Each structure stands twice: as C-alpha cells, then as structure tokens.
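Hey,

Quick one before I head out. I ran the complex with uracil overnight. Inputs first:
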Amino acid sequence: MRPQDVIRKKRDGGQLTKEEINLFVRGVTSGEMADYQASALLMAIFLNGMNDDERLALTEAMLHSGEVLDFSDVPKPKVDKHSTGGVGDKTSLILAPLAAAAGLAVPMISGRGLGHTGGTLDKLEAIPGFRVNLTLAEFRQTLERIGYAMMGQTGTIAPADKKLYALRDVTSTVESIPLISASIMSKKLAEGLDGLVLDVKTGGGAFMKSETDAKALAEALVGIGRGAGVRTVALITDMNQPLGRAVGNRLEVIECVETLRGRGPRDLTELSIELTAQMLIAGEVKKEIEDARDVVRNLLETGAGLEKFRELIEAQGGDAGVIDDYTRMPPAAHEEDLLSESNGYVAKIEAEMIGVASMLLGAGRVRVEDEVDKAVGIVLNKKIGDTVRCGESLLRIHYNGAEKLDEAKQMLRAAFRFSEEKPSPQKLIKAVL
Ligand code: URA
C-alpha cells in the first residue's frame, strides 16, 4: 500500500480502512510519510469527510501514536470534561474540584489560550508558583491524593496530533469535523477515562458559530467516545456572550473562587453545576441528574469545592493564600470603566470581539510562542438583557501598557448592541446529546 493510493481513494470519495488510516498516522508520526503527502490526504479528508468508523479509527491511531495513561489502580471513576473553547470559559477550575469533592478522579490535561479564546493553563499560572508542567509521576500522585490534577500536554501524549495540527494549520484544513474530533478525542482518551463530558460551544465567540455545526461536532465527538468504550455526553452551550463576567487570567481565577464560594455569576454557576452533575452521571456516582445537581449545589454551599481547589494549589506549588487575598495575584496597574453612550437594554455582546480586545490588552496570544500578561482583562458590568443608562459602566478594563488601549476600547464599544425592547432570554444549555 502506497501513500498515493490512500490519497487517491479519499480524493475520490472512498472510505479508508483501519489499515490505511494506521499507515497514514504511523507515517506522519515517524516522519516516513512526506509532509506533502500527509497534507494532500488532510485536504482530501477536509473535502470528502469521514464516516463514523473512519473517525474512530483515526482517533485510535492518533491515540496509540503515544502514551496512554492507565489509572485503573485509582479506585474511583475517572471522568474529565473538555470544552471546545470560548470567551470567559473558566468552568474547568470550578468543576474539577467539585467533581473531586464528589468522589470522582479527574485527570485533567489542558491547553493554552490562542486567539480570542483563553486556556486553562494560563489561568492557573496566574496563581503565583502554580506548576502546570508536572511529570506523569507527580500528576498521578496528585490525582491519587487529592482526586484531581491539572497539567499541560506532554510530548508523549498523542504526538501524531501535534504533527497533524501543525500541518493543518498551514494548509487551511483545521475546520474539519473529522479532523477536529479525532484531534480532541485522541488527547482526551489518552487520559484513561471511564467518562467524558463535552461542552461544545456555539455562537459568535465559539469555534462553531452555528448550532447546526456545533451539533455535528458534538455528534462526532460522542460517537468516537462511545465507540472507544467511554461513557460520553455532550452539552451544546451558548457562547453568544462571554461566560460569567471576567475575561483575562487573574480576573477569571478570582471569579472561579467567588463561584466556588457560591457568589458567582448566574450563568457560570448554572453551567458549572450542570457539567459537574453530568460528570457524576458519566462516572456512575449518581443515576438521576437532579440528584447529581443536588450533590453539586451542596458542595458549593458547604465550601467543599473551594477547599479542594485550595488543596490542589498547594499540591502543585502555588500560593493558596490567593483564595483569601486576591492581591497576592498581582493586579494590573490601571483600571478604567467603559461608559455607555446609549440608553436601553443590552441586546448583544459579541464575545469574539471581547476576546480579541482582551488579547490586545495582553491577556491572550496572537502566536503560540507569545507571553501573556496574567493581570490584564475585562470585567463586564452589563450582560445581555440588562438595562443600561447613558454614562453607566458597561465594563471595567484592567490594563498595564496603554499602547493598544484605544484599539481595545473601540473594539469593546463595538461589541455591544442595544435595543429599546428587552431581548428574549437565550438558553444557556441548548441541548444534551
Ligand atoms: N482543539 C483541538 O485540540 N484540536 C483541533 O483540531 C481543534 C480544536
């Protein structure tokens, strides 16, 4: 079997066998397959898609290109959550301690932010001393001792994904459901999970702008997870405005702590409860979703989730004192309110523009190698459906350098739309698959 035969088959709309997919993934990982052949096959997949069997075979080949963690000796259900990413999406920091406090083991391997979306690792690193580059032995130890651990990708997990993603990035083949779903699931399945909850975002601030595309991605992800024998559920959730009020790493950590104290914004609290409850169902800790929600609400009320977060910060070398004193995470040098020039209701907040403005302030990355400023960001004072008067604060900007401040302000102002009539409320959780 030659690479050009596999490329031709997919180019002509054929279905690849497991052997053909393995040849491709092995060839890419070992470097035996030339980049131009791998790129041609990626484009053929992009154009002609893949069926359920092909997607599962591609995921499994990518998964087995590297190390697959085995936590079978940890005597708890292993469950994680993955979000397709959005603006102000910080649920991992809230639900992982809650799920651990409820008896799950959560081996969470996360990513960094890129473009308008944030990343869990950058948020955790806003906590002075917090280490995300654990060895696998430290990761396991923390998981066993505390019930969860959070770290970054290692070079040994799904190395095929790293190579393929780099090729997709430069060949305009990123936005393909089979390629996205195999990429996400190969990394998640490497965590040795019993259950997985997927938060597939839809709307202006999401990867998948339309609900139809989000549903197609969710179906592909769930199909792969279940095909691999992992109890998998997907929620399709709204990203037509930032989640919660804070955007920017330090500000988001503070919002997570407030949420774990039971004082978080309504949407962030609701979604965190729902995702954690679904994790408890996926881990078979609870059978009924309403019972699972009660468990989570109780953990918020008693502060047990917050205590788990404190334990994790200490275990991973961070300053847990930040929980009681937010100034231990150095704040930005300046703050400024953006005042409304309109009266009425907030009808729309373009999440992507808020994310880009936050990135301009230094909270996010344009390129993978960029450094981020942990202190800067935005706190929304108004969300969709709120009334607003001329001169009232729409949001507060936390910034250090003023170089891009004007550009960010223009973008933030343009992100808001107003109406005279109260907009009809949007559903936060649009579907569960
Ligand atoms: N996230 C991933 O991990 N992979 C993709 O291809 C897209 C988003």
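Residues 211-227 form the longest helix (17 residues).

Talk tomorrow,
K.
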